[in-house]
Specification:
mainly alpha
Length: 294
């Protein structure tokens, strides 16, 4: 698995669009083989060959309770605990380079594909969400074969930059989805999002005349998500508990953040958006996201 990741990272570090696309496809194939049923019995050579090909439509996603005990997933999860093989770090660096190239059809598609993969990685490996809590400083490449230099990245700000109204609607939608994955069950990330004026950024996009109907709907969904009361930690997540049992969570550990309830969040969002009270009432009546307890 290390060789597959190393090859994909080499492609992602390239400035050639074709090589970046190939690296993204290799990562997508690897994750598909891990998450889809029927792959755990595949031999190592067969699994390596199958990474380059799309998964069969007959394969179905594994249940979360099954996934955490799958040997391939456990191997992948363990590799993600170290910075050298962490996929989220490489995707963030790739996004930063793609965003610097400006907006065009081909580049926009690569950004959307990278965001979709990043969203999946943050759900598969919750500890990687800690990257969105603060700046990370890396002065040299993590892998000799990757030739990647990551300098003073602030991933939370990067996602907000992708909500610039001048970018295409597909990027906006994917960035909002990824933002939800980055903030999910991590109050510390949400505090960073607030400090960076993330609420102003999302509400400005929502109010923009150029925003598409779909983007406006995704923005409202994000407001609903943001308004949910927070819990102190994400220890209830089945997959997140794996790193605690293995004792490898120290690399991603950070101080606990203060949590906020719906009323506090309503006040913050109300600074930039009207009728927030109606959103809160909708949440209470519809029991969205499992309901509201406070």
């Amino acid at each position: 698995m290390e060789s597959l990741l190393s090859l994909a990272f080499d492609y992602l570090s390239s400035f050639d669009a074709g090589k970046i696309r190939k690296g993204l496809r290799q990562l997508e194939g690897l994750l598909a083989q891990i998450c889809l049923s029927g792959s755990s019995k595949t031999s190592t050579p067969d699994r390596r060959r199958s990474v380059a090909t799309p998964p069969s439509k007959e394969q179905s996603p594994k249940e979360l309770s099954q996934l955490q005990f799958d040997p391939a997933f456990r191997e992948f999860f363990k590799l993600q605990e170290g910075f050298e093989w962490n996929v989220a770090i490489r995707l963030i660096a790739c996004l930063e380079r793609l965003l610097g190239k400006g907006s065009n059809g081909q580049n926009d598609l690569l950004i959307v594909s990278t965001l979709d993969l990043l969203q999946g990685i943050l759900l598969m490996h919750p500890p990687s969400r800690s990257l969105f809590a603060r700046e990370i400083y890396m002065n040299q490449a993590h892998s000799p074969s990757a030739h990647v230099t990551l300098a003073k990245l602030l991933p939370n700000q990067l996602l907000l930059d992708l909500l610039d109204p001048t970018l295409c609607p597909a990027i906006h939608s994917s960035a909002l989805h990824t933002l939800v994955s980055a903030l999910l069950c991590t109050p510390r990330n949400t505090r960073t999002f607030e400090i960076l004026d993330g609420l102003l950024t999302v509400t400005s996009l929502f109010k923009s005349r150029s925003a598409s109907r779909e983007v406006k709907m995704k923005s409202v969904e994000f407001f609903y998500f943001y308004l949910m009361p927070e819990t102190p930690a994400d220890s209830g997540l089945a997959i997140a508990s794996m790193h605690a049992r293995s004792g490898s969570g120290s690399k991603w550990a950070g101080e606990e953040a203060d949590t906020k309830g719906t009323e506090e969040k309503q006040a913050l969002l109300g600074r930039h958006l009207g009728n927030v009270g109606d959103l809160v009432e909708d949440l209470r009546e519809s029991a969205a996201f499992g309901g509201m307890s406070r």
